[in-house]
Amino acid sequence: MYVYLYDNFLRQKKYESTLKAIETRLTDFGVAGKIVRLQSFTNSEILIQDEIRRGAKTIVIVGDDDTVAKVLSRSAATDILFGFIPVGGNNTVAEVLGIPIGESACTVLSQRRKVKLDIGWVNNRYFISQLHVPASDIKIEYDEKFTVSSLNGKMELVVCNLQPFVWKRKGKGDIVVHPQDGKLEAFLRPAKKKKWFGDKYEDPSIFPFEEMSVSSYKPFEMEVDGKSSKETRITIRLAKSKIKMIVGKDRKF
Which has the least CB within 10 A, 107, 166, 174, 196? Predict the structure, then answer.
């Protein structure tokens, strides 16, 4: 049995025709199922466990990058197959997974091409898309072998999982950090020195790792799957669990 989790923003009138087309296509493919509309207070892990007890075999997330992060960060280790139908404009994860936007995603879903995906783990909770520490006075140690710090103490850090990170360079090609190679990917950009209009950065370093610690003598901001917090020390690693997910043939990994 398929269960479809609709994000709350899909209640907007502008998505009516898109959802109707999606539901028609799902019926055509014989994969229509129960629709559950998510609320801001919904605990996706409990909801999914309840649906599994009722016979659910596939949970399909319908929404955007934020929807994927919201659902999977709570329920990534749940032993069930996940699908994704991207709707809306904020859908970088869909491209990585090789899933087209809107009703065309139903074809991918019906083909049931399944893979196991890496999950990030930071301070005892999962993260799915991306972790970002804006330029801060931080020290980084990874894989218990290497320590990195900046001459003036400030560095920007991005750790990618399902969501890629693009660094745009003037006059040069963009650098794109792709996830899902059996390790997490880190994008590290030390600051050179203070300028009138902000910091000037060194060229970034990109490296895979299995475990990383980030520390500072004063709180720094951490943004994970759309949520921000203040930390003085975090530990990031690849989780032991993996997500079982339906992907397209044009996936980026």
Answer: 196
